[in-house]
Recover the amino acids of this structure.
């Protein structure tokens, strides 16, 4: 894909995310912004510097994200958590988020072809009983107001 062009298909490739609003400059970040980032290394990312415009919300979002994807204490294996997020993103049309979560689902599950089928065919693709149930539940939760 040509840098700076909007993607038009769901993919597992790493996409060049482009903000619609200018992210904060790294030099402009305050202690409060770094608290919201949770991990200082995220200050290098334009995506997180944009979200840092509301550091309290970013902090809550980041801690929730870390608990969902990195907490080994309970819940689904990481591959299936990423599958659920990829399915949600495929369903709601976010090509960028789908690419990130699809890559992680493929990495952890080692089922690249099945993940690509989800991206290509959508949330009704046949991925096997367990994965179909995860996708169906994710879509149902996404559609619940």
């Amino acid at each position: 894909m040509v840098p700076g062009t909007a993607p038009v298909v769901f993919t597992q490739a790493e996409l060049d995310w482009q903000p619609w609003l200018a992210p904060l400059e790294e030099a402009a970040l305050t202690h409060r912004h770094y608290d919201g980032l949770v991990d200082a290394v995220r200050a290098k990312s334009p995506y997180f510097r944009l979200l840092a415009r509301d550091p309290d919300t970013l902090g809550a979002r980041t801690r929730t994200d870390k608990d969902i994807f990195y907490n080994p204490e309970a819940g689904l294996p990481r591959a299936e958590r990423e599958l659920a997020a990829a399915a949600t993103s495929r369903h709601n049309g976010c090509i960028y988020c789908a690419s990130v979560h699809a890559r992680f689902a493929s990495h952890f599950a080692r089922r690249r072809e099945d993940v690509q089928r989800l991206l290509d065919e959508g949330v009704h693709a046949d991925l096997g009983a367990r994965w179909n149930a995860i996708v169906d539940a994710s879509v149902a939760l996404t559609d619940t107001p």
Observations:
- The helical segments are 31-37, 46-51, 55-70, 78-92, 95-109, 112-121, 129-143.
- The CA atoms of residues 118 and 125 lie 6 Å apart.
- Residues 78-143 form one domain.
- The mean pLDDT is 94.
